[in-house]
């Protein structure tokens, strides 16, 4: 019998209990970052790679002290990269930074307004990174054909968007997400566009293996409470998927028996 | 001599190593170093000499989604 304690999922050979993956951007301060991530129960946490701020805030807390790599699986991203070369360069720096840790989140963007991925550059970068022994979790559109192609290239997880990054619009194309899940033999993780707990549940009810989110938690009025809500939403959606929902009917079906009525 | 450090001009002593540069900068935490787009492994920091005009990038992990 599957329950939430035995229902683990595997990425690149490592097992994870939490199907909620979270980002570390947009929080007010490091205390809020730490509290929200703790409360979310996430085991995989994304970070960005940027220039060290030379000559400023020498005593500012380092993000990797707040989310230590011995406690969390750190997932460096290539956010802000608009071509394959800068994404590959970012991943190589991240691997050096994290002592050879080779799990990365590849995203190659195409357009500042939508932050939609540049698919041709994403495919090129994915090939180069897989050839260089990276384990690539790849952000992509909700196109089932491209999702399969990224899997064939050797990506360890495919991460279609629900809606544009940071939009909070929820899952705009559930049929495509379901098709991607049906076709996949690697984990499918909805990445970007979730706005509230029900959006996360819907992703899990569609059969996704997990959900990666940042803004939905960080920009909530109470991020720590939203982190808790998201943890429960992911668990509820997963259990509902495993339980198998009832069929939809056009008309009512009485829950109480007709027989034995005394009126 | 002058180098380009994280996009800005920066003056350091001639024949400075990465170890000396990092000490000068009083960096803490984890970082990675690239010189002229070649990553320098941590084990090479004391051997790797910096040359005038080198483009040096020092990066770290920050918040992101």
Helices and strands in order:
The complex is a heterodimer of chains A (263) and B (65).
Chain A: E1 9-11, E2 14-16, E3 20-22, H1 30-40, E4 44-51, H2 63-66, E5 73-76, H3 84-97, E6 103-106, H4 119-131, E7 135-140, H5 144-153, E8 157-160, H6 174-183, E9 189-191, H7 197-205, E10 210-213, H8 215-218, H9 223-243
Parallel strand pairs in A: 3-10, 4-5, 6-7, 7-8, 9-10
Antiparallel strand pairs in A: 1-2
Helix pairs in contact in A: 1-9, 3-4, 4-5, 5-6, 7-9
Chain B: E1 2-5, E2 8-11, H1 18-25, E3 32-35, E4 38-40, E5 55-63
Parallel strand pairs in B: 1-5
Antiparallel strand pairs in B: 1-2, 3-4, 3-5
Notes on the structure:
The complex is a heterodimer of chains A (about 260) and B (about 60). The mean pLDDT of chain A is about 95. Chain A is built from nine helices and ten strands. In chain A, helix 1 (about 30-40) runs parallel beside helix 9. Chain A has helices spanning about 30-40, 65, 85-95, 120-130, 145-155, 175-185, 195-205, 215-220, 225-245; strands at about 10, 15, 20, 45-50, 75, 105, 135-140, 155-160, 190, 210-215. Chain A is about 35% helix and about 15% strand. In chain A, the strands form four sheets. Chain A has a three-stranded parallel sheet with strand order 3-10-9. Chain A is of the alpha/beta class and about 260 residues long. With about 60 residues, chain B is mainly beta. The radius of gyration of chain B is 12 Å and the shape is globular. The N and C termini of chain B lie far apart (about 40 Å). Chain B is about 10% helix and about 35% strand. A five-stranded mixed sheet of chain B has the order 2-1-5-3-4, with no helix packed on it. The longest helix of chain B is centred in the first third of the chain and has 8 residues, at about 20-25. At the A-B interface, strand 4, helix 2 and helix 3 of A face strand 3 and strand 5 of B. Strand 4 of chain A pairs antiparallel with strand 5 of chain B, so a sheet runs across the interface.
């Amino acid at each position: 019998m599957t329950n939430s304690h035995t229902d683990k999922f595997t990425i690149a050979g490592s097992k994870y209990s939490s199907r909620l993956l979270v980002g570390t951007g947009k929080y007010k301060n490091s205390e809020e970052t730490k509290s929200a991530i703790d409360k979310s129960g996430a085991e995989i946490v994304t970070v960005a790679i940027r220039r060290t701020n030379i000559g400023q805030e020498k005593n500012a807390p380092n993000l990797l002290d707040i989310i230590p790599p011995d406690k969390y699986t750190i997932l460096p991203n290539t956010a802000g990269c608009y071509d394959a070369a800068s994404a590959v360069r970012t991943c190589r720096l991240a691997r050096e930074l994290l002592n050879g840790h080779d799990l990365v989140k590849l995203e190659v963007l195409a357009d500042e307004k939508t932050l939609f991925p540049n698919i041709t550059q994403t495919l090129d970068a994915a090939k180069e990174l897989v050839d260089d022994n990276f384990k690539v979790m790849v952000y992509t559109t909700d196109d089932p054909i491209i999702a399969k192609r990224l899997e064939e290239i050797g990506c360890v997880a495919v991460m279609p968007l629900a809606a544009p990054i940071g939009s909070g619009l929820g899952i705009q194309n559930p049929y495509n997400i379901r098709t991607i899940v049906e076709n996949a033999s690697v984990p499918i993780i909805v990445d970007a566009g979730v706005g509230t707990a029900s959006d996360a549940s819907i992703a899990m009810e569609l059969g996704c293996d997990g959900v990666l989110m940042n803004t939905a938690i960080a920009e909530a009025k109470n991020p720590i409470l939203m982190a808790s809500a998201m943890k429960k939403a992911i668990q509820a959606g997963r259990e509902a998927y495993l339980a198998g929902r009832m069929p939809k009917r056009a008309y009512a079906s009485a829950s109480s028996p007709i027989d034995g009525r005394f009126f | 001599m002058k180098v380009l450090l994280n996009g800005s001009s920066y003056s350091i002593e001639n024949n400075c190593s990465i170890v000396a540069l990092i000490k000068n900068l009083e960096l803490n935490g984890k970082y990675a170093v690239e010189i002229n787009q070649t990553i320098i492994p941590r084990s090479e920091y004391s051997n790797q000499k910096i040359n005038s005009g080198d483009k040096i990038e020092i990066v770290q992990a920050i918040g992101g989604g």
